[in-house]
Amino acid sequence: MLKKYLDINPEVLKAIKRGDPVVALESTIISHGMPYPQNVETAFNVEKIIRDKGVVPATIGIVNGRLKVGLTVDEIEYLGKTEGVIKTSRRDIPFIVSNKLDGATTVASTMIIASLAGIKVFATGGIGGVHRGAQETFDISADLQELARTNVAVVCAGAKSILDIGLTLEYLETLGVPVVGYKTEELPAFYTTRSGYEVDYKVDSAEELAQAIKSKWDLKLNGGLVVANPIPKEFEIDYETINKAIDEAIEELEQKGIRGKETTPFLLSKVKEITKGNSLDANIQLVYNNARIASELSIELSKLYRDN
């Protein structure tokens, strides 16, 4: 039945069948995260980083209604250039598929499609979460519910710093989603290593992390994990500077009455403008760093599952 909807790149399919390490990648960063051609160049660089680790990359998207696991060079170029590609979360998938539209996958939809294909590790920039003022707007990302139900480990630079990080952590705790710091006890906040909030657990190696993840799923404790991997120190933005920029961006957001799925793209674009492009450079570097750690994790998980 899945073949009716799902196209898995032959290279990716071969790796999955052999139990070789594979890392899933999202496509929202291509269509909505940054301008062309920087978006496409970044996507190719991320794939190269993963390949250089001896791992197969699987960039995920929807093209003409087909769920694609392992976009080709031409498909990445297409999603990077084409206007009107729909930012796709869980609720959007059936309508984009049935109407044969193009979709860029968010954290939630990338997790779903990766899981359908049998991929266990996913590298992204930062997860969505509870937006500031959510006690009035109820603006909470579908990423959090997906983390509670779908067995994919998400390597990220923590929650996007435009969010209410404290409430995001409370929500994840309620859903039973572990938030694991990779070599850190403090949750990173996307552009900065600091947030003021502690993670649930700290791990110091990909091997240690893989063992915990396999134990979780062996015990039928369904759902993913947040693997919070701090942006490298040399690329982070000063904590006070980035928070001031975010406060300014949120003030303008509220003045313009922007809501829903347009919130995050607007805020990220505005923060980029306020920081004179520094936030975009940081975004790119943290994605590269997450791809490296996700590759190491995928290798260790692959070893554990082969040994069983």
Count, helices: 13
User: Fraction of residues in helices?
Assistant: 40-55%
Number of structural units classed as domains:
2
- Indicate the CATH topology of the largest domain: Indigoidine synthase fold
Quote the beta fraction: 5-15%
Please give a structural write-up:
The chain is of the alpha/beta class. It has two domains: 1-119, Indigoidine synthase domain (Indigoidine synthase fold), CATH 3.40.1790.10; 126-308, 3-Layer(aba) Sandwich (Indigoidine synthase fold), CATH 3.40.1790.10. The chain is 49% helix and 14% strand. The protein has 13 helices and eleven strands. The protein has helices spanning 10-18, 28-33, 38-52, 73-81, 93-98, 107-117, 134-137, 142-149, 165-175, 206-218, 239-256, 263-274, 278-307, and strands spanning 6-8, 22-25, 56-63, 66-69, 86-88, 103-105, 121-123, 153-156, 179-182, 201-203, 225-228. Strands 1, 2, 3, 4, 5, 6, 7, 8, 9, 10 and 11 form an eleven-stranded mixed sheet that branches. It is globular and about 50 Å long. The chain starts with 5 loop residues before the first strand and ends with a helix.
Question: Which labels suit this protein?
Answer:
13 helices, Indigoidine synthase fold, eleven-stranded mixed beta sheet, 14% strand, 308 residues, alpha/beta
